[in-house]
Amino acid sequence: MNAPFAATALDKLRADLARPTELFIDGAFVPAASGETFEVVDPATGQVFAHSAAGAKEDIGRAVKAARAAFEGPWSKVTPAGRARLLIALAELIERDGEAIALTETLDNGMPYMMAKFAAVVGASEQLRYNAGWATKITGETVAPSAPGEWHAFTLREPVGVVGAIVPWNFPFVMAVAKIAPALAAGCTVILKPAEQTPLSAVHLAKLIAEAGFPAGVVNVVTGFGETAGAAIVEHDDVDKVSFTGSTQVGKHIVRVATGNLKRVTLELGGKSPVLIFPDADLAKAIPAAAMGIFGNAGQVCAAGSRLFVHDKVYDQVVEGVQGMARGLKVGPGLDPATQMGPLVSEEQLARVMGYVESGAGEGASVAVGGARVAGEGYFVEPTVLTGTAAGMKVVEEEIFGPVLSVMRFGDEDLDSLAAKANATTYGLSSRIWTRDISTALRMAKRMKAGGVLVNGGAGVDPALPLGGFKQSGWGRENGRMGVEAYTEVKSVTVQL
Length: 497
Ligand code: NAI
Ligand code: MG
Fold this sequence. Notes:
The chain has helices at residues 7-16, 57-72, 74-77, 80-96, 98-109, 113-135, 172-185, 200-212, 226-235, 248-257, 283-295, 312-328, 347-362, 394-397, 415-422, 438-447, 480-485, and strands at 23-25, 28-30, 37-42, 47-53, 142-143, 151-159, 162-166, 189-193, 219-221, 241-245, 264-268, 273-277, 305-311, 366-369, 384-387, 404-410, 430-434, 452-455, 474-475, 488-496. With 497 residues, the protein is an alpha/beta fold. It has a 7-stranded mixed beta sheet, sandwiched between helices. A 6-stranded mixed beta sheet has the order 9-8-7-10-11-19, sandwiched between helices. Strands 5-6-20 form a 3-stranded antiparallel beta sheet, with no helix packed on it. Strand 15, helix 14 and strand 16 (404-410) form a beta-alpha-beta unit. Helix 4 (80-96) runs antiparallel to helix 6 (113-135). The longest helix is centred in the first third of the chain and has 23 residues, at 113-135. The protein starts with 6 loop residues before the first helix and ends with a strand. 1,4-dihydronicotinamide adenine dinucleotide is lined by residues 166-168, 170, 193, 195-196, 225-227, 230-231, 234, 245-247, 250, 253-254, 268-270, 302, 352, 399, 401.
């Protein structure tokens, strides 16, 4: 198979990465104040292939100052249409550089190149275009107070201010863009901190932000560790809001620390999402979707369908089908065009996922397929199917964030008892239902305690569709009108006439 990218593009990228990447603060590329850098590892090889500036408290302080000055100054003077134009210009630059961005994402995260192209380039540019549309449509309302007298009363929606955007490593580029796009549409300024495992595509984004013509300080990109750079954002008293995507554990920590100045917090956290296959489902679609819903991006997806519930009548057929797909998937480096599933992002994630597989086996689950690390230096794990799993096992209750599926069966029971099993988790991000019966589908959709319900495949992540969690999967929603409104404050103005 021919590579879907030019070899010269990869050579150029590697040459560019010979020098450590820098921070982007107040419109300029600068090293960390400490002069320190950290190593960036290619998960397909386990080798260090780049270095990035290790931003920390002092750098965050400078970035917040720049973001505040831009917020009060030049950015506040850019019209809504001007903000929209800048977002669209950024979308076009992302498309222009699509090959380099996707290659960066593949080297850094490990995902297959075509997935990187789709998620990072198409996903990110569509986020920008969608939110560019909102920039000119964020409005308040007129209101009719009941107090005696004559009134003119209305609400204003104003930008919340300086935003800290902290993103994870599983879809680094599109997650970064999905946070800055609504924030900028609303008129906020941003300090973006990518994950330490995958800092590189955010640096490319910074270059495009400079080229697009955003005023200095509107977006600042500080690479660095969670415990230093990330913590400094959350602690900073001049940051008005933190938008975080990552682990539930760090999400809870952020909530505690954010009480300092009561900053606004939105959280998009983990999941343990159920997939329910009824006996009348279109199995030709449901089986591959169930498999790729957990093996896609090696299971490193917040909404991954990690608990599969199958009706007795179709259990054998579905489980054999999913197992067949697990055995047949081509696992390899993301740069190999034949690869369908890449490595896990890091040695730490590899150890975490292998620990869960062992714990499942220890608690009585059967490893029906996979369960082993793939020999070599990269962080590859076989697509894994666990059967004989049951409520109470760690592999059924905790987010694994790897290509590990727990399969359970159900019989002819009422929908309430089935929903209770599907909802028996502290998470509530997503759920998937496969049935041809419209009534079963919609009755189950009402019963699911989750921010998303995908019937017969549903739609993937879309900038127009609210995304977020019930329960410990998060606070607030990203995307859609709610996503942009989450970067605003409402002000009531009343005039006594
Ligand atoms: P993490 O939550 O530690 O990292 C996510 C982001 O938070 C990174 O940018 C990190 O630098 C930052 N961060 C870490 N500690 C921080 C702190 N004290 N203050 C501010 N920012 C901080 O996630 P990690 O450790 O990489 O992965 C652990 C587990 O989290 C995964 O196995 C998975 O279960 C879950 N996860 C969920 C994601 C999602 O999409 N919802 C994404 C990544 C991880
Ligand atoms: Mg962590």
